[in-house]
Specification:
Elements lengths: L1 H27 L2 H25 L1 H7 L7 H19 L5 H28 L7 E11 L2 E12 L3 E5 L6 H9 L6 E6 L2 E2 L10 E4 L11 H8 L3 H9 L1 H4 L11 H14 L4 E5 L7 H14 L4 E5 L3 H7 L2 E6 L2 E5 L2 H6 L14
Parallel strand pairs: 3-8, 3-9, 6-7, 7-8
Antiparallel strand pairs: 1-2, 1-4, 4-5, 9-10
Helix pairs in contact: 1-2, 1-4, 1-5, 4-5, 10-11, 11-12
Length: about 350
């Protein structure tokens, strides 16, 4: 993860410096030779940044890259280089001195970002207790999927968000996490409004229904990317299930192995709240048992919201249930109530509740 984010910044800075150099050379009259040298660097740096930032956007959203780490780019790098360009064109400094100062600015910012990343690795989990989301409305064409939907969760809880296919469960989780902008809705953490929770490192993690790890990645690469803490990464490597697939690629894993790996990579980031979209879907009974144990253990450090139709598994881990139907949410006191409300068939076997 540290290497990934370092190269993200390096690519952006190289593109910015090359573009500034091209602009300066054009003003100074050395357009041909200097632009031949700098413009390919601009295109290469911009292309690398675009690949890291866009092609792996789901990874980037879960990586915790936040605004504090970009303030240097906005308020120091570009204005500083612009000032150097003006001084150079006015003859106030020599090209050698200007180049040295520019390199010092870029180098200092890179060291500053590395320091921020190292600080983040030592950061303890956020001391927050409650997630509240309400007032969510969403239409797809003429169809209203969410009509004032709400959700809340506290640390130590596993809240089951239940509902039929197409009821809007995934839509609600995606809007809460910030993957998509809702028509309306508010997310509050300890009664403080948060616009895009994914931007706050350590606040929230999201497991999408389709997964998020690229199939061509190796498991070892996924562990390096997703485990910012060395001791946690070592623990993951020693996990019996993960250890036996270390040499494989993500695309070679079974559904159960991939979901187990993805869940534990998110837990390794120690989020305050974890949103899971159908974590048991397509998973065999043995790996479902492993996932259940992991979720129950994770309750000690975070609040969990999950959706899934594997209600036998949900029954064994959920501490509270919310039913989403008709675009609105309602609290459900017990599993028998789900029969009365039409979510479970009347013939459902509830003996696992004991």
């Amino acid at each position: 993860m540290l290497i990934y984010r370092f190269w993200l910044y390096m690519a952006f800075y190289s593109a910015a410096v090359a573009l500034m150099g091209t602009f300066i050379s054009a003003l100074a009259g050395n357009t041909v030779d200097f632009m031949k040298m700098m413009f390919p660097g601009f295109l290469g740096g911009l292309g690398l940044w675009n690949w890291l930032h866009k092609a792996e956007e789901p990874l980037w959203r879960n990586s915790g890259i936040g605004w504090p780490e970009r303030l240097g780019t906005t308020f120091v790098l570009l204005p500083g280089l612009a000032l150097l360009a003006w001084c150079w064109l006015e003859g106030r400094i020599s090209p050698e001195l200007g180049g040295g100062i520019g390199a010092a600015i870029v180098g200092g910012l890179l060291l500053f970002h590395v320091w921020l990343l190292l600080q983040a690795q030592e950061r303890s989990p956020l001391d927050v207790r409650q997630l509240e989301a309400d007032g969510f409305f969403q239409h797809f064409g003429a169809r209203a999927v969410l009509k004032g939907a709400w959700l809340n969760c506290q640390k130590g809880e596993i809240v089951a968000l239940l509902g039929r296919n197409g009821s809007g469960k995934s839509t609600l989780l995606q809007r809460i996490y910030g993957l998509m902008v809702p028509e309306s809705g508010n997310v509050r953490i300890d009664q403080l409004w948060v616009a895009k929770p994914w931007r706050i490192d350590g606040l929230m993690a999201f497991l999408p229904q389709q997964g998020y790890l690229p199939r061509e990645w190796s498991v070892k690469h996924a562990l390096r990317w997703g485990s910012p803490y060395a001791d946690v990464r070592e623990q993951l490597c020693q996990d019996p299930i993960i250890a036996r697939v270390l040499r494989q690629r993500i695309g070679q894993l079974s559904t159960g192995e991939r979901r187990y790996l993805e869940l534990h990579l998110l837990l390794a980031r120690q989020p305050a709240f974890l949103l899971l979209d159908e974590p048991f879907a397509g998973v065999d009974p043995l790996h479902r048992e492993f996932l259940r144990k992991s979720l129950i253990a994770a309750r000690a450090t975070c609040g969990i919201v999950l959706t899934d139709h594997a209600w036998h598994e949900v029954m064994q881990v959920a501490t509270r249930m919310i039913l989403l139907r008709g675009g609105q949410c309602e609290t459900v006191e017990d599993w028998a109530a789900l029969m009365r409300l039409g979510y479970l068939p009347s013939t459902a076997d509830l003996t696992l509740q004991e």
